[in-house]
Amino acid sequence: MASNKRVHEILEGLVGEVRETCNIGVLDGNEVVYIDRVECDWPLRVQLQAGSRVPAYCTAIGKLLLAHRTPGQLEQCLNSVLLMPLNGNTITKANTLRIALEAIRTQCFSINNQEDSIGMLAVAVPILGADKSVMAGLALHGPEARLSESRATSLVARLNSAARDISYFLFAEPAPCQTAG
Fold it and tell me: Rounded to whole angstroms, how far apart are CA atoms 124 and 137?
């Protein structure tokens, strides 16, 4: 799946509105690959490029995408990855991760509260294909000083709106994710 100009414009508009870095990622094995990314203009930020890879088990997009794998695919992933602690917040036990992934599947968004980098928080929502399967994830992230967990959660509806627009341009049919509340 490759991004396109209109999708990038949606990301640019979203970053302009929320003032934090936003990216789209897909699962490749046990890693997330960013297929498009727009950086915010704050000096304090994580700078990565499209094509960058990050571990799936400790990132917002990664956990979101893992949560929507089939049980067999998830077990294959968990059996083939070392849940290495990147810091004291990283989930390193498979059963704990399974419980977290079930909650993500239920709430239809994912939070990464400093699991891969101390001081950084992220929230991700699914980008759905025409068949309503989770094809990719849309995330925003920023430093805890600007992006609290409550602010991140408050932006989920806006992210879902952008994800529907992105779904339309990538898959020619919007497929909204229904969440409670």
Answer: 6
pLDDT at residue 131 in the model? 86
* Other beta carbons less than 10 A from residue 33's beta carbon: 19
CA 180, chain centre distance (Å): 19
Model pLDDT for residues 79-134, shown as the tens digit of each residue: 888 898 999 899 999 999 999 999 999 999 999 999 988 989 999 999 998 888 99
Exposed/middle/buried for residue 66 (C-beta within 10 Å: 0-12, 13-18, 19+): buried
Ordered by where they begin, the domains of the chain are: 5-171 (3.30.450.40)
The 10s digit of each residue's pLDDT in 37-70 is 887 675 554 666 665 668 898 999 999 999 999 9
How many Å separate Cα 122 from the centre of its chain? 8
